[in-house]
Amino acid sequence: MAVSVFFDTSVLLAGLIDFGEQSAPAQELMDLVADDAVARPGTAWHCCLEFYSVATRLPAEFRLTPDHAFQLLDREVFARMSVHDLPGTNLGAFIEVSVRDGITGGRIYDAHIAEVARIAGASVVVTDNRRHFLTALRHGLRIAAPREFNKFHDLVILWFGDLGFGLGIKIGPSGDLVAS
């Protein structure tokens, strides 16, 4: 089954590590995932690796031990989301298209994540780095910041009340409402 909502590393980091006020939208989104209010959430294996890498080298006040970083990945990502990667048969084609598109430097990683999201069937990539994912727009992927995605959830609450999600309504592909 296709992924509906695909999470970038920026959302995993801010959603699982409290960096203060700026983490609130991503934390709200991760709460929706934990409450099973987001249908078929997913992320890339690269995002999991990047989460671990960044989380274990942050400034001391935010840094996680390797064990704590693994525990968060295991409990909050692996247990609640599908994790995807490019099939081996797509690797050469991905680099070839990246060269043709003029993608250079670190943008190759975001292009990789967007391609993984596309192949996984995602409708939307949620990221705090929207401009890094502009190439995904040509494939019909929507790009949303956590705050934008959460506003949609708030509209559902207005329409259906707090019981909306308890009645089996979830945010599905393309931001539509689906029965769970």
Spell out the blueprint of helices and strands:
Layout: E1 5-7, H1 9-16, H2 24-34, E2 41-44, H3 45-55, H4 66-78, E3 82-84, H5 91-100, H6 107-120, E4 124-126, E5 142-144, H7 146-160, E6 169-171, E7 177-179
Parallel strand pairs: 1-2, 1-4, 2-3, 4-5
Antiparallel strand pairs: 6-7
Specify the oligomeric state.
single chain
Instruction: Give, in order, the helices and strands.
Output: EHHEHHEHHEEHEE
Estimate what percentage of residues fall within beta strands.
5-15%
- Give the beta-strand count: 7
Task: Give the uncertain stretches in residue-range form.
Answer: 155-171
Major β-sheet strand ordering: 3-2-1-4-5
- The CATH topology label is Rossmann fold
Domain module count: 1
CATH class: Alpha Beta
What is the CATH superfamily?
5'-nuclease
Largest sheet: 5 strands, parallel
Number of helices: 7
